[in-house]
Amino acid sequence: VRVAVLISGRGSNMASLVEAAREPDYPARIALVLSNKPGAGGLETASEAGIATAVVRLRDFPDRAECDAEIDRFLREHRIDLVCLAGFMRILTPGFVQAWEGRMLNIHPSLLPKYKGLDTHARALAAGDAEHGCTVHFVVPELDSGPIVAQSRVPILPGDDPDSLAARVLAAEHALYPQALAQVARGEVRLTEA
Ligand code: GRF
Prior knowledge:
EC number: 2.1.2.2
Strand order of the largest sheet: 3-2-1-4-5-6-7
Distance between the termini: 25 Å
Protein name: Phosphoribosylglycinamide formyltransferase
CATH architecture: 3-Layer(aba) Sandwich
GO molecular function: phosphoribosylglycinamide formyltransferase activity
Keywords: Purine biosynthesis, Transferase
GO biological process, one term: 'de novo' IMP biosynthetic process
Bound molecules: 5-O-phosphono-beta-D-ribofuranosylamine
């Protein structure tokens, strides 16, 4: 199973997928890392690991649909089976999402359906929650809303601030995403019609 990881920044989740996929019995390999930001740190990590990289910037296209068509071309050129969004900070068009429905995952730093969108750690702290975590889900056109593949929970501890909580959640993300991708790549978890 050939996987593309879409990133916008540091790419630590992408790196955890690359690391996991090095294991001989892992059911997927990372064949492409694509960023919408030319300066994304993760691009260098990926090149160093010998993985093909691409940059597709929205500003180089007349509209979002044309930009997403270019992403789709890269995915098909690299014969990609599954797409993993990992800190990809651009909303994809419904047409693109529908074309990859059931074959595209995202990781989100909250226990969905709580705290869709941004600033999840600060919001969990402000709500006085006792626990927080991360979710891997299938991508559907509505943001952070698709069927859940897997979740991982972490405690919120006295004295936590958004940064300390984010670090705890990120460590959980790095364990969760490779495991969730493996389940989907093996066909153990599938998106079905409602
Ligand atoms: C992660 O917390 C991810 O859940 C969120 O953005 C962050 C990306 O980090 N959507 P990285 O680029 O994978 O290091």
